[in-house]
Write a structure and sequence with these properties.
The complex is a heterodimer. By secondary structure, chain A is an all-alpha fold. Chain A is built from 18 helices and no strands. The two termini of chain B are 51 Å apart. The chains are: A mainly alpha, B alpha+beta. The structure holds copper (II) ion.
């Protein structure tokens, strides 16, 4: 690979150019280019995915037998707490922010984010609170061990009485993560509102932009509650206040309101951008316009609105009056309406299309499969009488992992494969990608399906030992988790080897429609620089022959330079 | 979808209706199966919950397999030929269809919600919805079974990590819960430390026990047998071992159990956590420091949690 084969604009940029001298150093610096920050986020997130996954596999090792025989119970409790915390705060939010950084500016034709320095600060907080979180394993008292909900009073029991405890470090990390996410949200929302290319009206924005906007608005509304709750709990723990301590007149259930007021919407912060990814990919890889674009776009904000008024469904058995149970049951069920609008729109999009079953499309289809399963069990969970039975059992764990791993993570994999050529300038290996897909799809279902029968039978979540009648499904789940562990290997090999020595990617390998595909691969630091295109039509004109921007061929011709 | 709307494609119509029929039959079969996925029904609440679950299993099966059928069809029949780089026919939407698939799910959701609210109300009449007392002594609890049957009173104390059951009328205490079949019972749930969950899967009922409050829970067992009571709210190191057995028996057996229990001297009740903690200290702890388990409660009857149970 010689430098001469790159677009000259790429070379003068400080963007990561594979093979260009010293390009790797940019990833270890306080770089303000959103594309560098995006890759930083994704790389750090995948590192923590490996750690969180390793913790999960140790847990599944413990649960492959009914007795508590692999790790001490205190260790198990630390493992499950840190698994959830790492996966949510260190993997899934950062990886989505990585995609936001890569896609928002390029999809709307902005040179960068609205506040590039704030963007870099938000990113660099991630390794900081990551180190805080991980180093709590080294404390004499061990890490936090009261679950990722950290409900008081069990979370403020501090057997050693030390000022610096695992729980204290956990709360500090969560509060910092909240600060980082708020910084990110301010930036993403401002960028979307203020920095769109000329002609890109709201109803010409790609659905990914709509969903990112919706998700980041939820962050702005919900995060202050979580961060406030975490800080109050930290005071209870360290200073001895009693916001949530019954002895001091506090109310432990109040914390549950603070926590879930944010943490239910957090699930939509995660899944909304994945809906965006599905919308992009189903239409690009079946060569058809997205069916019912306006409905799909507006459904995102319907989900935001409803998502803010459902949080009590997480603690129906927790001393909640009946009118509240009925009210929150109905709001929760109503979310299935805008969600259904999206699912039906995707089905109508692929219907009669010309499908290309490449890795991104396979991951999207697999993700949709899992999401629909999670959707129907979600309706069951919303139903108060059923929820009373299965709340805090493995049924909830199964449902949640179908949403997060089955749908969101598979959607994120789809996005990583789909946009990998654009942002690295290299093609990945299709065979390894498909292998990754099949292992992930089978592993996910093997791991998480058995949790549903277990929950219906009455197996509580978070146990380190269980009655023997639960053994069979637990063995299946554990085998599934080990398969999921294996599934990550072809992914890592593919990503690393493709980035180092994969074939050079063309400007638009999928023949997809979107401003990002009018940029060279990888795009220069300032994206379109002075030549920002003027958008003249909606985003998914597959088969219509309508150009997306004025003078489109001038942008497309850049691919000739590379080829 | 792209054929002209005036001509009806009869073979497609036949295919779709046949397949819909197959799915309906399959969904109905699944709704029957759903009962077998749940533990035995041992309270008046259980059939109501299970009926709702069975109904939603039918709907869930139909929706899930309906969607999967469409996906499977598309994946099998709508794949592009190997070197076909062309686009598909550009259909951008259909407002009528979009309104239909917004309105129909909304109607179904309201249907489910209506059914569930009714079950909620029935359950409330049976008495599982709690009454919360903060500080003040326990008071009269709302009617159950529509009348004023005198309910058995049982005080439940949850600790890290044991369950204690007091029968104030008979002056009996136990770490095994005995209940007479077909008689309403009122529990007064109290926690001495953290939040615990009172959960008997065979009863389909669950209530969090919040420290600083006394919470009433009413239920009526309907089937004799031995069932598990599990702590359902994570409560610390020995959370998993915080289980007790619930023995539902005939009124005669129950009364003789109470009588016999009253004559027994107080002795340490069951606490697996105390036993494990002792062993852990003797062997040298492998893990991190832990909250020390509360001593086993002193009760008339320890009972057992090692016998085979029905659910
Ligand atoms: Cu929720």
């Amino acid at each position: 690979m010689t430098l001469a084969s790159y677009d000259p604009r790429v070379l003068k940029s400080n963007a990561p150019v594979p093979g260009a001298p010293d390009n790797w150093k940019r990833f270890f610096s306080f770089n303000t280019d959103a594309k560098v920050i995006g890759i930083q986020y994704i790389t750090v997130a995948i590192f923590f995915l490996l750690i969180g996954g390793l913790l999960a596999m140790i847990m599944r090792g413990e649960l492959i037998t009914p007795e508590n025989d692999l790790v001490d119970r205190t260790v198990y409790n630390g493992l499950y707490t840190m698994h959830g915390t790492i996966m949510l705060f260190m993997f899934i939010f950062p990886v989505l922010n990585g995609l936001n950084n890569l896609l928002i500016p390029t999809m709307i034709g902005a040179p960068d984010m609205a506040f590039p320095r704030l963007n870099a600060v938000a990113f660099w907080l991630v390794p900081i609170f990551g180190v805080i979180l991980i180093s709590s394993f080294l404390l004499p008292g061990g890490p936090a061990n009261s679950g990722w909900w950290s409900y008081p009073p069990v979370s403020t029991q501090n057997p050693l009485g030390n000022l610096v405890s695992g729980e204290g470090m956990w709360l500090t990390a969560v509060a910092l993560s909240g600060v980082s996410s708020i910084m990110g949200a301010v930036n993403f929302v401002t960028t979307i509102i203020r920095m769109r290319a000329p002609g890109m009206t709201f109803f010409r924005m790609p659905i990914f932009i709509w969903t990112a906007w919706a998700a980041q608005s939820l962050q702005l509304i919900g995060l202050p509650a979580l961060t406030g709750g975490a800080i109050m709990l930290l005071f209870d723990l360290v200073v001895g206040t009693s916001f949530f301590q019954p002895e001091g007149g506090g109310d432990p259930v109040l914390y549950q309101h603070f926590f879930w007021f944010y943490s239910h919407p957090a699930v939509y912060v995660i899944i909304l951008p994945v809906f965006g990814i599905f919308s992009e990919l189903f239409s690009a890889h079946s060569r058809k316009p997205l069916f019912g674009y306006a409905f799909v776009a507006l459904a995102s904000f319907a989900i935001v609105f409803l998502g803010l008024i459902v949080w009590v469904h997480h603690f129906f058995p927790s001393g909640v009056p009946e009118w509240m149970r009925n009210l929150f049951m109905v709001t929760t069920m109503l979310i299935s309406v805008p969600t259904g609008v999206k699912v039906f729109a995707w089905l109508a999009t692929i219907w009669g299309g010309k499908l290309r079953l490449n890795t991104p499309m396979l991951f999207s289809l697999g993700g949709l499969f899992n999401f629909v399963f999670a959707g129907v069990t979600g309706i069951m969970l919303a139903t108060v009488p059923i929820d009373i039975h299965v709340n805090n059992t493995y049924f909830v764990v199964g449902h949640f992992h179908y949403v997060i791993y089955g749908a969101a993570v598979m959607g994120i994999y789809a996005a990583i494969y789909h946009w990998f050529p654009k942002f690295t300038g290299r093609m990945y290996y299709e065979g390894l990608g498909k292998l990754h897909f099949f292992l992930t799809f089978i592993g996910t279902n093997l791991n998480f399906f058995p949790m549903h029968p277990l929950g219906l039978m009455g197996m509580p979540r978070r146990v380190s030992s269980y009655d023997p009648e639960f053994t069979f499904w637990n063995v299946v789940a554990s085998l599934g988790s080990f398969l999921l562990g294996v599934s990550i290997i072809p992914f890592l090999i593919n990503m690393i080897s493709s980035w180092v020595r994969g074939p050079q990617a063309p400007q638009n390998p999928w023949n997809a429609i979107g401003l990002e595909w009018l940029l060279p691969s990888p795009p220069p630091a300032e994206n379109f620089e002075e030549n920002v295109p003027t958008v003249i039509s909606g985003p998914y004109g597959y088969g219509t022959g309508k150009p997306l921007v004025e003078n489109q061929s001038a942008y497309e011709n850049q691919s000739l330079l590379e080829a | 979808m792209n054929s002209s709307s005036t001509r009806i494609n009869y073979s497609a119509l036949a295919l779709v209706s046949t397949w819909t029929g197959v799915l309906v039959v399959f969904s109905f079969w699944m709704s029957r199966q759903a009962y077998h996925w749940l533990p035995v029904q041992a309270s008046t609440a259980a059939p109501l919950v299970d009926g709702l679950f069975s109904f939603e299993t039918a709907l869930a099966t139909f929706v899930f397999f309906g969607v999967i059928s469409v996906m499977a069809w598309v994946v099998i029949f709508n794949r592009a030929e190997k070197y076909d780089m062309s686009d598909a026919e550009p259909i951008e939407g259909n407002t009528r269809l979009e309104i239909i698939w917004t309105v129909i799910p909304a109607l179904i959701v309201f249907g489910i919600a209506f059914y569930s609210v009714r079950v909620n109300q029935k359950l409330a009449v049976l008495g599982p919805m709690e009454h919360i007392h903060r500080g003040d002594p326990i008071e009269e609890v709302g009617g159950f079974l529509g009348d004023r049957l005198p309910a058995e009173q049982v005080e439940v104390t949850a600790r890290q990590w044991s369950w204690q059951f007091n029968y104030p009328a008979a002056k009996v205490s136990s770490t095994e819960l005995h209940l007479p079949v077909d008689k309403p019972v009122t529990f007064r749930l109290v926690s001495e430390d953290v939040i615990h969950g009172f959960y008997v899967p065979a009863f389909r009922l669950k209530q969090d026990i919040i420290p600083g409050r006394a919470i009433n829970l009413n239920l009526t067992p309907t089937r004799e047998g031995r069932y598990r009571l599990r702590d359902s709210m994570y409560s610390g190191t020995w959370f998993s071992t915080n289980q007790a057995d619930v023995v539902v028996e005939s009124e005669a057996e129950y009364n003789s159990w109470l009588l016999q229990a009253a004559s027994q001297p107080l002795q340490p009740g069951l606490s697996d956590a105390v036993a494990e903690y002792k062993q852990r200290q003797a062997e040298g702890a492998r893990g991190w420091p832990t909250v020390v388990p509360a001593p086993a409660p002193m009760v008339n009857v320890p009972g057992s949690n090692q016998l085979p149970h029905n659910g």
